[in-house]
Amino acid sequence: MNREEEIVARSLSYRKQYVEDTPGWYRGELHLGFTLAFTIGVVWYCAAQLQNTTWQEWLFVVVPMFLFGNWAEWAGHRYLLHSPKSWIKPAYKRHVATHHQFFSHKTLDYNGHKEWRALLFPPFAPVLFVLAALPAALLIGNLWSANAGYIAMLTMASYFLMYEGLHTLSHLEHPILDRMPLVNTVRRMHVLHHNPDFMHTRNFNLTFPICDALFGTSDLNKGLLGTLFNGMSDEARNEEDQARLRAQQVARTGQTQPAGKDTAGAAPRKAPGLQDARLG
User: Fold this and answer.
1) Range of the domain at 158
2) Is 164 in contact with 209 (CB distance < 8 Å)?
3) Could you tell me if residue 112 is left (phi over 0), alpha (psi between -120 and 50 degrees) or otherwise beta?
4) Helices then strands (H, E): number in the chain?
5) Alpha carbons 242 and 160: distance in angstroms, whole number
6) CA dist., res. 279 & res. 22, Å (int)
7) 12 vs 5: CA distance, rounded Å
8) pTM of the prediction?
9) pLDDT tens string for the chain (280 positions)?
10) How many domains does the chain have?
11) What's the CA gap between 272 and 177, in Å, rounded?
12) Quick check: helix, strand or coil at residue 150?
């Protein structure tokens, strides 16, 4: 059995037990419903307060807040959800011990509302993400205009919706998604991030990999624009990561396993993306 087969076997075993242990009262529809109701509610409320906005208010608030959201997404994922030194220990433990055990790079899909408990971010996540923008929104609102403050909050709530949406799409298997610019880039990068040997070091952006490209946590050597529009190709993946992926295919005996051989008789469920994205 090689390293990759061990990962798949552990994931499949954990998934089965996790679903069986899911409380009877849990409803994935309500979980998703809260996320949508909260974020869309914030967007609707803030939009309703806007009066006679100018293009300057939209441009000079939306762009900086979008970039702040991209950084917050990257930094929170890297330093709070993937660092043992995280000051939010429950979030770290849930993300690493639950989400990443349930979903490996070979078992990324989901079936049934009970599995949404492992897929969707906890209900407190959209609240914290949106509230993180409140100090900046209050400052902008007082120094510039009320419109600017409401646009700041509206942008962050919209960003979380995009964040949750793209993350969910990264866990779906559909060929159309692999041909959509930007979306396919996110999906390919997320496959590698769910490989246990890379989850603490690679591809922390769940929307557009701006900060991954800027701060050196992308597995690609293509620069910012090249990374954003990379799509499903692995050609620019750095050689060190390629070597580690090849090593996962080598059996403990030192022999490479035949292609297509399953783990302990269990057929791994397909992960999003093309075959090269899954295998490296």
Assistant:
1) 3-279
2) no
3) left
4) 14, 0
5) 32
6) 31
7) 11
8) 0.82
9) 788 888 889 988 988 898 889 898 999 899 999 999 999 999 999 999 999 999 999 999 999 999 998 998 999 899 988 987 777 788 888 888 888 988 988 888 888 888 888 888 888 889 988 998 899 999 999 999 999 999 999 999 999 999 999 998 899 888 899 999 999 999 999 999 999 999 999 999 999 999 999 999 999 999 999 999 999 999 999 999 999 988 888 865 554 444 443 333 334 444 444 344 444 4
10) 1
11) 9
12) helix
- How is residue 126 annotated by DSSP? H
Tokens of 123: 């209900």
Task: Return the structure tokens found at 271.
Answer: 């992960």
Q: Sort 87 into a burial class: Cβ within 10 Å, 0-12 / 13-18 / 19+.
A: exposed
Q: Tell me the Cα Rg of the chain.
A: 20
- The beta-strand segments (E) located in 139-198 are none
CB 181 within 8 A of CB 231: yes
Dist. CA 130–CA 134, nearest whole Å: 7
Please identify which residue in the block is written with the tokens 């041909």.
Answer: 179
CA-CA distance, 253 to 265, in Å (whole number)? Answer: 19
Residue 112 vs residues 61, 119, 120, 161: alpha-carbon distances, Å: 39, 11, 13, 21
Q: Which residue has the tokens 């419109």?
A: 147
